From TrEMBL:
Coiled coil spans: none
Domain of life: Eukaryota
The name this protein goes by in its record: Putative ovule protein
Boundaries of every R13L1/DRL21-like LRR repeat region domain copy: 30-87
Length: 151
């Protein structure tokens, strides 16, 4: 909904939905500092299996999109984020803590300056990837300008 704002006292509520399996975060192309700070403080429940981040206007993904915080995540979709340049350091995980994600969708992220090797390294169990209009993504084995798939 246009004009909606996450209030400070609402941030912890999301973590209480212990049976939530899918979450769609539509940031609505909002780029004001207060909104981005509050979005950074969001704490989704560990039960999530699917996460969609849309119209996000930060330069780096929120730190809570990390394997140690979303260890049950199986599918991640980041799309329509024209400003996004990097995946956060926490996104990459650590040697003993990698993503269990099997499906990944990256669409309309023209400024995402990551290498495909780094993404694959963070997600060793990937089975299906959809990439479209990610012109700055480096070394992806298929076209990054049009819709393409990797299996």
């Amino acid at each position: 909904m246009e004009g909606s704002m996450i209030e400070e006292d609402e941030l912890p509520v999301l973590a209480q939905f212990q049976y939530l399996r899918m979450l769609i975060v539509n940031a609505g192309d909002r780029d004001d500092e207060i909104f981005l700070e509050r979005l950074e403080k969001l704490l989704p429940p560990k039960s999530l299996e699917e996460l969609y981040l849309r119209h996000f206007c930060g330069r780096t993904t929120p730190a809570w999109i990390a394997p140690e915080l979303l260890d049950g995540l199986q599918y991640l979709c980041i799309e329509d984020s024209l400003v996004l340049q990097r995946l956060s350091d926490r996104f990459r995980g650590s040697e003993g803590n990698k993503w269990k994600i099997e499906g990944l969708c990256l669409k309309y992220l023209p400024n995402l300056e990551e290498t495909w090797e780094e993404i694959k390294s963070a997600m060793p169990g990937l089975k299906y990837v959809e990439v479209s209009h990610c012109n700055s993504l480096k070394s992806f084995s298929c076209s990054v300008k049009n819709i393409d798939f990797w299996r």
